[in-house]
Amino acid sequence: MIAIIDYGMGNIHSVRKALELYGAKVLVINNPKDLKNCDKAVLPGVGAFDDAMLALKKQDLISAIKEHIENKKVFLGICLGMQLLFTESQEAPGAQGLGILKGKVLRFPDRCEIKVPQIGWNQIKIQNPKSKIQNVCPLLKDIPDNSYVYFCHSFYPAPEDENVIAATTDYGINFSSIIWQDNIYGAQFHPEKSQSIGLRMLENFVNL
Amino acid sequence: MFTKRIIPCLDIKDNRVVKGVKFLSLRDAGNPVEVAKAYDQQQADELVFLDITASFEKRKTLIDLVEKIAQNIFMPFTVGGGIRDMDDIRDLLNAGADKISINTAGVKCPDLIADASRKFGSQCIVVAIDAKLQMLNSKWQVYINGGRTPTELEAIEWARRAAQLGAGEILLTSMDYDGTKDGFDLALTRSVAEAVNIPVIASGGAGKLEHFYQVFTETGATAGLAASIFHYGEYTVRQVKEYLKEKGVSVRL
């Protein structure tokens, strides 16, 4: 059973439908008790970092999410849902993230050659850190290098540990577009909006 | 590499696409979900749905439609037309729209742009600007209510203001060029794209393949929107992209 964590920060229809396409049983959850019954969880989300943390707190989901991850259950954060995994964000100085991964979430620099937010299709460059050379992120199974995916964001994560970077994308700067550490996955783009490539990633997630 | 976006625009009335969609040769050509699916297959980068129903009672059906689209089309889409307040925006985002386009309500109440981008994130708030050149002073004047009502706003200034208020994107339509097929309004698009650091979608006037090339090489627009050339089957989205790629413009193919 895959939990989609609904904390009132954006739509869940496309993620849900995509997961169901590949035979997943999906439960939309908004409380810690229901999360316990699921072996995988997806944290979607658009909007502001601090509002999102506040919403998770109100629904008593913060420790439940941490517990889910500590119990080695599979977790996927999408867009803001991925950023929340980190310690803090420039979007909301002072607000704490889930702190499951070390690092900050940063804003794209204001420079004339790039428009912020990044809205549109860009490529992912799959990373093979030496320590994982035989071991490409399972989410990227059968995904060609330099595939196009859909981005819609002003902020991006800067992990302290470079080994968690599974793919990068170039938008004025080179940033981490997919992160992966053991049972934790994150995508800065929207797989549920990235047509066939995105659907393949979600299929891989269902099959993990 | 980051790519330029090609965006078909669909006008929706009472839950149906109202412009012709000959080339799709679908039995039910007016079904927005089917039309969207066809554009999805052509590798459109995004879709814009503009609801021209406008009546309050019909709003609920728009929300149902957005839900249906979100469950069938795995690509980004924007919904606009008659958005009045935070509740409208929240309901449509919750139904599955990725972005909401605000026009008249944003001019009448700029706080709506600020509140919405703070609450839902800049990246999902698009400010649509309909602009027309004033002969008197050579400035682009902003119109609201579907182009029926002139305002005192000047387009470049308004775009700048909208960006400051938190808009994530500008959907810029030239009323002078719309429907002419003479090409995008390059001067207007260039001026607005230079004035703001958020993405600008050029709209109005696309009639030939080279019009897309011009707008991407001669202005700072990052997306081109068109309706009739796609709906009437003159070109597919793919043809536009293949043409652009050959000319060295980066597109997703």
Explain what this protein looks like in three dimensions.
The complex is a heterodimer of chains A (208) and B (253). With 208 residues, chain A is of the alpha/beta class. Chain A has one domain (2-91, 100-207): Class I glutamine amidotransferase (GATase) domain (Rossmann fold, 3-Layer(aba) Sandwich), CATH 3.40.50.880. In chain A, 24% of the residues lie in helices and 30% in strands. Chain A has helices spanning 13-21, 32-36, 49-58, 62-70, 80-83, 195-207, and strands at 2-5, 26-29, 40-43, 74-78, 88-89, 103-107, 118-123, 125-126, 148-153, 155-159, 165-171, 173-181, 184-187. In chain A, β12 and β13 form a beta hairpin. In chain A, α1 (13-21) packs across α6. The mean pLDDT of chain A is 93. Chain B has 253 residues and is of the alpha/beta class. Chain B has one domain (5-246): Aldolase class I (TIM Barrel, Alpha-Beta Barrel), CATH 3.20.20. Chain B is built from 10 helices and 11 strands.
CATH architecture of chain A: 3-Layer(aba) Sandwich
Number of domains of chain B: 1
Structural class of chain B: alpha/beta
Elements of chain A, N to C (H/E):
EHEHEHHEHEEEEEEEEEH
Strand residue content of chain B: 15-25%
Q: Going by CATH, what is the homologous superfamily of chain A?
A: Class I glutamine amidotransferase (GATase) domain
H/E topology pattern of chain B: EEHEHEHEHHEEEHEHEHEHH
Looking at how many chains there are and whether they match, the oligomeric state comes to heterodimer
Biggest β-sheet description of chain B: 8 strands, parallel, barrel
